[in-house]
Amino acid sequence: MLYMLKTDVYFVRGALNGALLDTRRGNVYSINEKACQVLMGEREDSEYWKLLSDQGLSDSPGSIKRAKFSRRTPCELDFVWFEITSSKCNQSCIHCYTDSSPQTSREKQKHVDTLLTHQQWLQAIREAYNLGCKKCQFIGGEPFLYRGKGGETLRNLVSYSRDLGYNFIEVFTNGLLLTPARIAWLKELGVHVAISLYSMEASIHDCITQTPGSQRQTMSAIEEMLARDIPFRVETVLMKPNEKSVPRLQEAKKTWGVESTVDILRPTGRGDKQRFQPEFEYLAKHGLQLEPAFVIDEQTLRRNLGGNPCLQKQLVLTASGEVFPCVFARETHLGSIKKTSLAGIIEETRTQEIWNATKDGVLVCKDCEYRYVCQDCRPLAKAEAHPRGNLMSAPPPRCTYNPYTGEWAAGLWTLGNEASPFYDRTKGEEIQRLLQIK
Q: Which residues sit opposite 172 in a β-bridge?
């Protein structure tokens, strides 16, 4: 339930406490149970109303009403991953979510027979654009290995997308095929690049990619992009083999002045092996929500009220034409463009259920006052809660907040034997120990 105190200021009540969302200034304020009762008219406190007014959070005492927002998401597409080479890659990364790797000639021929043709790709790119999509990412495998039967390459697909009117195009690559000539046409077309780098130590990076010399080649591509002023970001998946070397890598990214993310390994594809999961101290440092560091604006709030920000209005289209809600949600098949148009898949009940499922349907989140300002990863939640978890309702496994007690960093959420949420306080003890060390 969302309430409005004044234009741009909203109130969300949780199981115990509440939150005030000042979308004009971007602030999110935590308020206790008594303050919630005052706002809801369950107790009187003129001084509290005056305090809110003085801070510009309320127009007049008792001025509160239910906010009215449309909760249904239009059948409009915002973002697509075009996975143009789902399993074709020049590396064999130990954690790959699509099991990509170099293929034998027999495997190549068998695989080619199932792939979308170049014309089918052009049609899909055009249809996605006509459905409202203006942002896309070309991924793999390794997208630079894409070849149409007529010799068409990634450049043909990117050029076509740019000519159609896509205003944001990104290529996600391992960098091994980023030659100066390719970097030149990426710059000419205004394409962004995301590049994978796992460590500044070549032996660690090459161990993860299982490709000798790959770190040196990736670093050469980064240096060339810096020299050519290409807009790019560096993606790092944190896992057991590179966990100790990530701080040095993060420092390097700062010197390059590029956008940097550290993504904790998700248990998907070849990454679904416990031995690759990072030690808990590294997970706590890089992957846990330990405090209410939230910001909000009107547009984000409206979007979050219409669906879960993790999966809303986005799709992945694979090289064989299969459609999924996310690159990490391979168990949730939405259809195939070989059988149904992209528009038809979007209009399907299952797709609309996923797009319109808000945090109000997620265990624990539905009782949290921060549910409309927070983000999580639904495929991760499902994987961590396997086999009892559901994609749209599994509790967030990396949130340490307990909305029933108001505690932060006192535990982590999981599913118990009865598929009910359980706040594991044994993890809280370890979190507190690590925070004290920090």
A: 194
